Structures
1.
Amino acid sequence: MSAAWGFGFVPATELSGAGRILFEELCERASDEAGIAFSPLVAQSYRDLITALEERRIGLAWMPPVPMIEAMESKSVGTPLAIPARRGLTVYHSALIVRRGGPRTLAALEGRRAAWVERDSAAGYLVPRMHLAAQGHDVRRFFARELFVHSHAAVIDAISSGQADVGATYCHVDVATKHVSRAPWLDDEGRSTRPVEPIATMGPIPNDALVASTELPATARASITRWLLALDPRAKDLFERILGAHDFRIPSPDHFEALRHSLRAARARGHDAMPRDSRRGLRVGQRS
């Protein structure tokens, strides 16, 4: 095999010894398929992954849609090979959630405390802020206080505990009923396990993707793509346990276009900006 490339991802929680062993096995399998050696790279943030792509230290990266679009568009250092289809779906939604019995309208959120995931999170920050702006609200001054809590689970914890009045997280919306069918506050039967409820949903948002460096040889990219589309049972198990996905699809050329267009508009208007220092609170936690 040729010189090693990194395979990078940002774990939702600290990667244990067992998790690292599984990731090493996944890299070995990718290496066998591509004929190029891949070694694990556990990053602290998606900005770190983009930097690693720019510096040609990684050939593969698992990325959510916003950093992936940046890697594709402004940096031109990455291209998506495949996206996961979770229960047959290649998209998800964002939800603004409140504590049960809390505010019932978007207007009633003004002057409240908000909990976000992080600045690069589509469902946990950017998409709901763009939605609020589209409804005529000045998102730069709308909330009294804004926290970045660095994971979707932490957003739900902040709402449940009363640390925040509203937060944003991901969910899946049933196409027929328009109701939330799956979400991190629901169990497998659709029953709420936390004292929170959605007051608005937004989307659809493209799923995360396996991104390849544009410097990775085309033959290797093609080999990895074919492998993803016909995974054996062990490879499926590894992807599911490490990255929460085992069924992959090739995205259509326009799959990311709506989100890309929205991001351009948001950035042009400053809707993606960090909250003002006087209105921002940062807490240390794991990113997702």
2.
Amino acid sequence: MVDERPLFGPRAYLLLVRMWSRSASQYRVSLAFTGFAQMLVASFDLISIAVIYTHVQTLAGFTFAETLYLYGTTRLAFAASDLVASGIESVADSIRLGTFDLVLIRPVSTLAQVLADQFTPKRFGKLIPAVVTLVWALTELPLHWTPAKVAVAVVTVLTGFVLYCSLWVLSGCISFIAVDAREVANTFTYGSEYATEYPLTIFGRPLGLALTFVLPVAFVTWQPSLYVLGHADPFGLPGFLRFASPVIAALLAGLAALAWRGSVRRYRSTGS
């Protein structure tokens, strides 16, 4: 007997990912080459950081290993979110072409459909430089690890993943308002990832505070990493913010869920 119940949540997403993965795996050589290309492209920012440290000993008070810790945690969280949620980038084209109507009539969660759209295993290539960099940084850092620091380091990546996934969804919601605003949406996703690869103090106090209280990407890795690395907050912010990342991630995820639901409910077909 066929199960005709609607599919929601992770189950629907995983089934769609499996479908797209099987499709992509039919071209294994192409998949291997594009995955390798993704790995190389993801390494370019790492090369730029290495070049900077050939001219300076510290950057905003952070050593090379400490900056690589920031880079590694940020990159790992972002690469994981890119793997899971970057399919939402295609929602702008779906709305413009009128094919988003098909998403609405299927008995499957709309968010699961757009997140899994065009999923490809080549995105795993972005994870490799992040993992290698983070492992190297952890071996080079002269830190006294305590259970609290280990917990914060692990939670840093997990909450960073949730924060970035939330930003992907919120950026997708922009497409319901301005269909041709993909580059604006990318500012919040790729732009946020770039900013959090470095110590926020290099951007100055006004922008650093904006990235903390307006677009809260400082909670991806900056705030918890200050605790792990033993740095005082250069902006003089309260110490409890170093442990606030899970709360901020939960709030932003809730906001993203409400924004997506509201955007879908207010969607009007192109009529084509």
3.
Amino acid sequence: MRPVELVFVVGWAAFWLYWFLAAFSMKRGRVRWSRELRIRAVLLVVAILLVRLGVLRGHGVHTDPWREAFGLVLFVLGLAFAIWARVHIGRNWGTPMTEKVEPELVTSGPYRLVRHPIYSGILIAGLGSALALSWYWLVPVALAGAYFIYGATVEERYLTEQFPDTYPAYKRSTKMLVPFVF
């Protein structure tokens, strides 16, 4: 394993460990599993197939140091943005498409830039991984992007119901995932 690959492995592992531990501090809520289970099951099956088939293994882009460095910068910035958003939202965070018992609308910090900064940060980190390690990593990034757009749409329906006076204006003034674009 090359040193740059080790950095990505350790970085992703540390990020997901933090994510798991931080989940214990969130407010109570519920996920409509019956309604959302299908898409999660399909994505899980696709991810397992990709790993089992070895699609993501051994296909490095053999990049030059500049490409690896730029990918590493995107990776670090993406994870930092996602962590900033997670810390900023605090106990209001939940797994995708969770309905909170006492919801609060957070529109400050990174949520001023995009409505779903955690998703944005993870996708940027994924793009950095693809750039530095292997173009094949664009497959899970695309799957995650599709899931995040779907999840964001479901979450926004719920938020519109919960905050009918404030959420529509916030939605009009702030892009979903990419500032000023989308």
